[in-house]
Amino acid sequence: MTHCGVIQVLVAGMTMGCAAILSAADLTVGSGGNYLRIEDAIAVAAAGDVILVSPQPGDKPYARTHLALFQSRITIRAVNSKGDRVRLEGDGYDYSGQGRIPRAIVQFNKGADGCVIEGFELSGAHNTSHNGAGIRINQANQVTVRDCVIHRNDMGIMSNGDGTPQTAADQLIEDCLIHSNGDLTEPGYNHNLYLGGTSVTLRGCEVHSSLTGHNVKSRAHRTVVLGCYVHDSANREFDLVDDKAYTTSPGSDAVLAGNVIVKAAKCPGNRAVIHFGQDGGNDHDGMLTMVHNTIVTPFISPVIHLSSARARTRLFNTIVWDGGAGQKGQILFAAGKDPGKAQLVSGACNWLSSGFHSPDFETLPLQHTVFGSHGAILPFMNVGKGDLRLFRRDPTLVDQGCVLPPEVSQAIGVAILQYSHTRSAEVRPDDGKPDLGAYEFTAGENVKQP
What backbone torsions phi and psi does residue 17 show, to the nearest 5 degrees? Predict the structure, then answer.
């Protein structure tokens, strides 16, 4: 090819690229919009388009919504002058997953990379397999779910790869409320979140009250939960387990940092807080890193249960409180049926209720552990509402954290976040003297004793 020919090809390529950018359009849905149904806008949408969805007259829901996306970089955004979320309901539709029928109200299929959905309330997704979801990420990469309320489905959010590396990678679920999902027809197998694939991050979300299963179940290679409020599950709050394709290689890790995690006082199912390991017979070769969490559990069941030979955990700057119950015989860490496999656990600078102090605990290499007095009541703002900020400077909690080792900071990869009850996450203040738990103590008018 001649020099001029090369230039012509380059110019043509640049022109096509610019044309693709310029052709991106806003597609409006709803009263006065270009389309009455979101499905109609999806059918004509091209990469880069933004679908703006207004509420139905009288704020009625978009009924029997079933969106299957295959295009990349589509944004579906709710637009409501009242500030409310636009409602998408699935009642009466069979989300079978057969052919091109989605298994969710909104499903991002392979090729739908870089898509975003924000500002919706999704409910009523069911099927005969008991796994109809509000949202499903089916092999797509870089999908973002933002500012959504997801409830009353078989599953809240599902995701999966195709068994090969780098599918369902970089999923981001942020500033969402996900609650009351499940199906009593098949109890224990339906979850608020059931995640898989290469990597997923939850940030600034409230996840609570799974009807039958766990609040957060994940088989992803890497699961990161930052600045979230996770509470009142029917079973475990977190079930981080195995997948033949995604967890058998080294680095199949999970990070929980800056979270408030609370067990229901009358939890009907498994009363362990966090399970990291396996439930399907595959290995789970990774590290569970837990930093600056506040955990409330009145139960003897383990706070952290490791169930795979290569599963390990480390615990820093965390509060584990029994809610003032004065419980005895509590177990912080268990590996299989043995609570004393010290080589699998490490960490420093944690506050624990008195019930965790036992001869078995003394075998664990956890440095600078502080035990509260029997039945200790911690100065949290409002435990009943999940506000576990401190209302006064407690000398056993404030400035008692340790600076994180470099390898722990590297595993987290970002600044530590803390949950805000506006359902978002904010960067945790850092004065060089970290406090224990999910919140840095802040003196001032914005934090007052209840």
Answer: -65, -45
Beta strands in 43-169 (DSSP E): 50-53, 67-69, 75-78, 86-89, 104-108, 116-118, 120-123, 133-138, 144-146, 149-151, 155-160
CA-CA distances (angstroms) from residue 195 to 97, 109, 154, 178, 268? Answer: 17, 15, 14, 14, 23
* pLDDT confidence bin for 20, thresholds 50/70/90: very low
pLDDT given for residue 446 in this prediction: 52
Residue with the larger pLDDT of the pair 7 and 197: 197
- Interatomic CA distance for residues 233 and 213, integer angstroms: 7
Rounded Cα distance between 365 and 102, Å, is 49
Give the contacts of 256 (CB within 8 A, at least 6 positions apart).
225, 238, 274, 288, 289, 290, 291, 293
Looking from the CA of 375 toward its CB, the CA atoms found within 13 Å total 0
Q: Which residues pair with 345 in a beta bridge?
A: 313
Q: Residue 341: which of 311, 369, 301 has the closest Cα? A: 311
Cα dihedral value 116, 122, 128, 130, nearest 10: 80
**At 450, which amino acid appears?**
P
Give the type of residue at 276.
F
pLDDT digits (tens, 9 = 90+) for 53-64: 999 999 999 999
Distances (CA, A) of 178 to 127, 147, 269, 278, 309: 19, 10, 19, 24, 32
End-to-end CA, the chain: 77
